[in-house]
Every structure is written in C-alpha cells, then in structure tokens.
Amino acid sequence: MTSTTEHTEYAEHTGQAEYAEGGRDREARPQEAEKTRQAAEAPGEGTAVRAGADAAAAGGAWDDGLIARRAAAAVAATGRQAGAGLPAPYDGGTASGVGDADLAARLDALRELTGLSRPRVDAAALAEAGRVLDDAAARGRLSRRHTVVALAGATGSGKSTLFNTLAGVTISDTGVRRPTTSAALACSWTDGAAGLLDRLEIPGRLRRRPVQGPDGPGAFDGLVLIDLPDHDSAAVEHRAQVDRVLAHVDAVIWVVDPEKYGDALLHERYLRPLAGHAEVTFVVLNQVDRLPEDATDQVLDDLRRLLDEDGIALGEHGEPGATVLALSALTGEGVGELRDCLGQLTSERRAAARRIGADLDAAAERLRPVYVPTGRVGLSEEAREQFADRLAEAVGATAAGQAAERAWRRNAGRACGTPWLRLWRWYEARRAPRTTERPPGETHEEETTTARQRVEQAVRLVADEAAGGLPAPWADAVREAAGRGADGLPEALDGLAPPESVPARPPRPGWWPVAVLAQVAMTLLQVVGGIWLLGQVLGVCAPDLLPPVLLMLAGIAGGPCVEYGSRLAARGPARRYGADAERALRDAAAGCGRARVLDPVAAELLRYREVREQYARVLDPVGGGSSQGRAGGAPALGGSFARGPAGGRSGGRMAELSTTGR
C-alpha cells in the first residue's frame, strides 16, 4: 500500500507537487495567480453573481428598499447583457428543469424576495434562502471547469476502495480498522481546483493527483473527487466534516453495501432530506461480488424501492433523476459504467448548476408557508362597504341625517306656520322646564366610549377580513397596519362632525315666499275681519255680521291649510336634505377610515402580492415573470418544471399558487 509520503514523492516526480503542498502556497505562485485572475475576469462566467456578491458586501446583503431593488435589477441586467449564467459558461442541457439564464433569474428573484420580505418575515425563515444565495455566489466565483463529486458512505461500505479504483492509485487507506478514513481526501484530475478545495477546507497535505495515461485526464477532465469519512462514524468531528462537505459539493456518490443499504440513518438523515438533489446523486451498491448472481437484481430492486419511498426520482427511461448502479470496487465489476457516468457528468459541466437549482428548490419549498396563501386574499367590496357602514354608525351619520331633516321641517314650520300657533308654541316652550338638556358627565362619556368601541370593532373586523388567507407574517403585518391606523381614528372621526350637530340654516326652496305671503294674507283676513266686527259692535260701522265673520273664518281656516300644505311640500326636500347630510357625514367618515386604515392595509396587501409574484418567479422565472402575473393576482405557473425537494414536479404547487387569492 502506497503511503502518503510515497505519493508525495510520486507527485513531485511527475511535476505535480502542488497537490502535496498547501493550497495557499500554490496560489502564491505567479503563474497560478495569473491563471486564477484571468479565469475570474473571463466574461460570461458568473458576472451577475460576482456583481451581486460585491453589491451585497458593499451595502449589506439583500437590504429592503427601492435602492436595493434597483441595484438587484441593474446587477441582473448587467449579468444578462454579458451572457452570464450560473455557473456559466455551460452550453445546452438543463438545471433542475431550467437553463442557466433561468437559474440566474431565479437567484435574482430570490435575492429580491428576501430584500422585500426582511421587514415582515422572521430572519430565521430567510436564513436558508440567504445560505443558498451565499453558496451560489461563492460557487460562481470559483472554477466552472471543475466538477466536485463526493464519495460518501457508511463504515465498511468500501468507498475508499472505490476512490482508489477510480484514481488508479492507492490514495486513501483501506483496511479492517474502523473508521479507516478520518479526514476528507481530495483527488483532482486537472489543475486549478485550489479555490474549490479551500472552500471545502481540505488542507494541501490531503490533496492528491491520480495516475493519468499519456492522453491526460480524458473524460475526467475537471473532475475533483472527495473521499469523505464515514457518515455513521462514532467520532462527532467525522460526521460534522461529512455534513460540511456535502453542503458544498456539486454531486454525491452514495456507496452502500448489501448489508447496510437500508440503514435508517442513511435514509432519514441524508437521502430523504436531499431527495430534490436526485439529478446530482449516485447510489452505488458496492461489494456485489459477495452476493450470489441472482441476488444482485433483488437487492437493487429493493434499494430502488427504498429510494422511491424517500421521494428520490430515479433516472430511468431517459428521465432525470438519481443513478443507481451495482459494482464491485474490489474486482472492478461495474466500475466502468460508473466511470462513464462520471465522465458524462464532468464533460457536461452542469452539476454545479443542477446542485444550485436543487438547493434553490429546497429553499423555495421551505419558504412556501411564508408566501403561499391558504385562501382568498384581499378585501372585497362588500367588506369595504361594511367597514364604511360601521364607521358611519359610530359617528352617528343616521342620527345626524334625521336631525338635519327635522331641522329642515322645523324651519319650514317656522316660516310657513300661523303666527298665533307660533306664538303659542313659543309661550309653551318658555313655560316648559328644560328637561331635554344633557346632564353633564356620565352620559357623554358613555356615548364616547361606545363610539370608540364601535370604531375598534370595525377596524378589527376589516383587518381580520383582509388578513384571512394570508400567511402568518403578512397577516400580522396587515393587522399591525390596521392597528396603527386605528390609534387616532376615533379622535379624527370626532373632529368631522358630532352626531348631535344640526345645520343652523337649512336652505329654503323657492316656494317658501309664496307660502309666507299666503300665510300673511290669511292673517290679514283675520285682522280685517276682527276690526270690521269690532267696528260694528262699537257702532262705527253699519251692522252686517256676515262679511266680517266670513273674512275671519277664511283667515282662521286658511292659515292651518297653508301650514299643512307647506308641511306636505316640505317632506320631500327635508328628506333629501337629511339624506344629503347623512351621506356627507358617511363619506367623510369613510374617507377618514380609508386614509387611516384601508390605505395602509392595501399597501401591505400590495407588498404581499409583489413578494408572492417574486416567489412565483423563484419557482418559475418564465411563468412567474409573465405580464399576467404582473397585472394582478398570482401568475399562472402550472407548467413549471422546477423540481421540489421530494423529487416530484412542482407544477401542482405552482397551479395552487396561481389559483388561491387575487
């Protein structure tokens, strides 16, 4: 077995000693530094991501506000104009069902989504999205030529033996001692992977080069293979190292053996949570040389059944998904098929994009409860009218209208009534005790308290109506906006017009002077008739009782008739005047409620619609960015090909997003 020192000597002999030295010492070499600089400045290779990362470092990642959104839009436009994708410049193929340009658009949408959501959504809920954006930016700044593949497995699964078989030289120690692999070991077929290995925190002393033929790396050009410690190791630091590396590699080869392929720890801790990463996942059944010939297929079928229960889509019949193979690293049986699969994965150079797309799908699924409504969203016209009615009731709009109507009729009665009746009413009013005055203190306070309670109830009901169907963070934001507006709403309504206020001088219609003249004429008839009759009694006039009596009777009967006719004529105008007064107070109260409550609530609903459309673009940048989605409601995204974390298509979830709420 070749030791580490012997392999270092082999690397120095072949002029590849950089993989036996520290990674940071390699980068200090002028030639390597110049190559790294040229690769980083190459156009069309993750420009948008690098610019987004620089902008985030300069001004804080994904800050909320118009400036941040404009900056994100400018970064996205710059990236697209440069033909940048993530991780560009891959040509052809798909990444989680979308191209690289669409993946960059999805990342831009997620970045803007987190910025818009930060004031409303808990930071813990956005932590996963921030991690995905950080990882995508970090991966975009590194080499796009290389594909990092990790070999993971349980104790005794034979992953180190498979690692050595693929490398063509004994690099990783194998043996019966468990665990044999105590630290991640890297093997790169091509130069320039130092940055990737530094990101994985693999020291230079654990970086190796494989045995290569005269034609160079061949199909493995750009492959970086990582041998991980056992994921079920008793050492905590080994498991932590496995979790850290798996979070940053482009693809994973899970090595299982016939005895532990159904281990619950493997399926529950790793395979099931990473089911959405099926396209960058290989599941290799090793040690088939230990099985009878007819048992291999049975074990493979059972393994596929377990993977299906985990929600992992299998790449069979030309469909994208996980690759399941059976081999023996010891005898070499089936290793050639794995080499072919790795060669195809490396030559496509799309594993990084697929991994980022899968991480993006998983982050979007975790954010689903934060953005997807559970019912109809928004305020209906009926709810707005009910809110206005409750405010009108609180300010006493109906009572004010009735008071205005009574005032109009009272004014008409004063102008068109008989003088004698008006005089009698005045006398009775002077004699009657003043019992209609409001006693100071308790009554006014009780009415004020009741009106305030009505206003608070109206605000609470409209807030509940607006928040219904919204996810919890946005429902809370709607209620908070309504509550802030309700703080000064009772005082503002009191300043409009008190319910007991009555207009001092209602307008007079054109027929009032005629009625007044008629009433004056009736009064003159009574006066003339009375004087005439008095003159006859005193002997001044010739005795003739009939004419003066008729005059007096005409005046006495005509006055009430004129007054009654005026009252009949005054009903319509008085009713209209009261309705106008009620409507004016109702409109004023509704306007006050709209400015203080409905407008802030509408602003929160508009903000939610904006983030919901951004979330739809994260799921599907094509359908989510359609004009239909921008016009109103959620866009129709039922045709999305974004994969969910369970390995199934997310078109059903997209369709649900497009049909719930408006």
Structural notes for this entry:
With 662 residues, the protein is mostly helical. The chain contains 25 helices and seven strands. It has helices at residues 4-13, 23-27, 30-41, 47-59, 66-81, 100-117, 123-141, 159-167, 194-199, 236-246, 264-271, 293-309, 335-348, 351-366, 368-371, 381-395, 397-416, 419-431, 442-467, 472-487, 489-494, 512-538, 546-619, 627-631, 651-659, and strands at 147-153, 185-188, 207-208, 223-227, 251-256, 281-285, 323-326. It has a seven-stranded mixed beta sheet, with helices on both faces. Helix 11 (264-271) links the parallel strand 5 and strand 6 (281-285). The two termini are 68 Å apart. Mean pLDDT is 74; it is low at 1-99, 435-443, 498-502 and 626-662.
Relative strand content? under 5%
Largest sheet: 7 strands, mixed
Alpha-beta content class: mainly alpha
| Low-pLDDT windows of residues | 1-99, 435-443, 498-502, 626-662
Find the count of extended strands (DSSP E, 2+ residues). 7
Q: Order of strands across the biggest sheet?
A: 3-2-4-1-5-6-7
C-alpha-based Rg, rounded: 43 Å
Pfam families: MMR_HSR1
Biased composition (Basic and acidic residues): 1-12, 21-38
Protein name: ATP-binding protein
Biased composition (Gly residues): 623-636
